Amino acid sequence: MPDLVASDRAEEVAIFRSQVIGSIAHRELSRGELKAALRQLSHTRFRSPGSVVTRTISVPTLERWYYRYRRGGLAALHPKPRNDRGRAKALTAEQRSLLLDIRREHPSASVTLIVRTLVADGRLARGAVSPATVRRLYREHGLDKVSLRAAAGGTPRLRWQAERPGALWHGDVCHGPTLYIDGLPRPLRIHGLLDDCSRYVVALEAHHTEREVDMLDIFVAAIRRHGRPAALYLDNGSTYRGAALEVACARLGIALIHAQPYDPQARGKMERFWRTLREGCLDYLGTVASLADVNARLRAFLERHYHGAPHSSLMGQSPDVVWGQATQFRDLDDKQLRDALTTHEQRRVRKDSTLSVDGIDWELDQGFLAGCCVTVGRCLIDNPQAPWVEHEGKRLALHRVDAAKNAVRRRRPRTTEEKKKTPFDPPTALLNGRKEDNP
After folding, report:
1. Alpha helices, DSSP H only, in 227-313?
2. Confidence (pTM)
3. pLDDT score for 190
């Protein structure tokens, strides 16, 4: 059983007082006997709560405690707070009005800045008012920083959670320590996806960059492994504001949600996981040779510690256990996933039958499309796959340009259909024509 202790400082003091007078409080004493007992008790030394020394207690104080206890029990022995508590008595009425007006007009100014400015202007004497006194004044009138932030928010903040595992995933990027690979500094960006209900990490991978395509790669890997979520909750960074992610989520039936700007508290679960990851892994990476070494350490942290550790927000259960209790996941076959992440763009084929996709030159075998605008299709996942051209219902392959190989490559003649010409010979038509046809 948990220890039974006093609920607050006032009850602790009341219990002490009841123990001091307890030896006489339950005895029937006449007036003379009570006075003698109180006088004798006043010679005893007691150590009050929180004190390091002992002291005696006067007879009037003991008598007051005695009669209070007889009338109202333990509650009557609670110390009474001052009526002017928190009123900043060191301030005059003019000073109070001045400080309150400044706070209302300049809510972002700190107490230290306000006091320093008033002293410099000569409106307050140096040392006359301490910042702590001003803070008590603002707290009394609801002008402290906490109250101002709550008022600016408009609505109260509530603790919330998704109804089941797989209903909502958080996505974010954590900036890790700089890596030195082959003597060169390289940035470290940890991309992660966290299930809201179970706090289970469905994807965690280290990269050197913070791009939309990096996010798509780990998102697709997580969907293939765990199924698709009902919603994806992201911040407002450029990594998560691209059209590709928006279209992909719409095709997959996933609600894409972006947090309100300048409200990091709304994504507290993800921020709390990053803190846990830093304290348990990232702050102790040491010397690593590559991203593969970092990813190996991240996987070990998840599998051997985080997923199996009890979580306070899960009532002591581990993310592994809560995630394993899920009964329904929205499975997705690979074709549906690839179709959802396939994009189409318009490109003009150059005269040498080549076109550019993401800075890479590709060439077509169909030379008759030179100079034409064509539709280029490509899948944003599985990077090794080459893009293709869609023309008149046909899918035409693209090949990487090899200029050195093309220098000795035999030029392929156009097909028979391409070389076929429509007959058009006016002189011959006149020669072979009938006379009555001539005017």
Report:
1. 243-252, 268-280, 291-304
2. 0.61
3. 94
